[in-house]
Amino acid sequence: MNQKYTIALLPGDGIGPEVIKEAVKVLRSLEKILKIELILNEVPVGGAAYEAEGHPLPANTLNVAQSADAVLLGAVGGPKWESLERDLRPERGLLGIRSELALFSNLRPAILYPQLASASSLKTEIVSGLDLMIVRELVGGIYFGKPRGIEIRDGERFGINSATYYESEIARIGHSAFQIAQKRGKRVCSVDKANVLEVSELWREVMEEVSSSYPDVTLSHMYVDNAAMQLVRDPKQFDVMVTSNLFGDVLSDCAAMLTGSIGMLPSASLDKNSFGMYEPIHGSAPDIAGKDIANPLATILSVSMMLRYSLNQAELADKINLAVSEVLDKGYRTKDISAAGDKVVGTEEMGDLIVMALES
Ligand code: IPM
Ligand code: MG
Questions:
Q1: Nearest to residue 350, comparing CAs of 341, 336, 340, 339?
Q2: Ligand 1 atom closest to residue 138's alpha carbon, by position in its atom list
Q3: Which whole number is the average pLDDT over 53-62?
């Protein structure tokens, strides 16, 4: 019997559908070469779901995601929906699915492909060989803390959000980070703002406690402002960085840019059983949607992460990574990662090239 997997496809908005289409080509090609059977269930999320069903996360979308073996998401959001009431905005769909599926561990690797060193805005020697992993807590912290809202106080508008963490929430993301570090360079840098915030003080304490279960991994701590600076000063000092939801949001964009293109970076969001949702870390990029210029590689590499972390098919994951490397070696680039002399290709052609490399 062929191994059978059900994958929920949530293309979303902007360039989401275009890049997911290329990832589907890759999935279908894997099915051909490797005799696995894939059931792909496509459902709307974000602005597309609002248009179709009046809500960014319809119940059916959540059900389909919940009952799949893994979820592949494109991107959500766009100017069209920015003025909607907050609960109906596309981003709510994304935050909702993360939270409903308890995907607390967000892995955001920043890997520099040697072929793309010149695309980085930093000097080649600072970024060459870069391979760092940001582990971002994804379902807690100030993104979800209560109280929150905008109200009238003392006769004027008053905005409030709360940065909150239970120790159990800190411990579980800590364990994630340490276990990943065990399979890499065995160093965890925990990023916080413990010099100012009580919630960070607790974060630091709990990270220390968790670290005692991992004597083979070295733990260090860094304040987030310094971490932002160190990321652009000497990013190769880091192996695994673990941090809260908001700090991770900011630092992972910064780390992404070190590699030259946010169009290259995949991510995984996992629950405690390694069930996961996989998505490119770039957004919906509405300005370039529908023009066949978006880079599908981040989504294709998200498929690779999905095979590795949720479907236990590390060999297939390696195959995809190799195909991406081969296509880059041949000088093919989408516009976002191109330099003079490169062969610039569109979204669809890049997908076809990866499929050809896989099948050759
Ligand atoms: C990300 C994005 C999201 C976040 C937005 C779209 C809600 O920036 O995945 O990093 O802030 O988490
Ligand atoms: Mg972000």
A1: 336
A2: 12
A3: 98
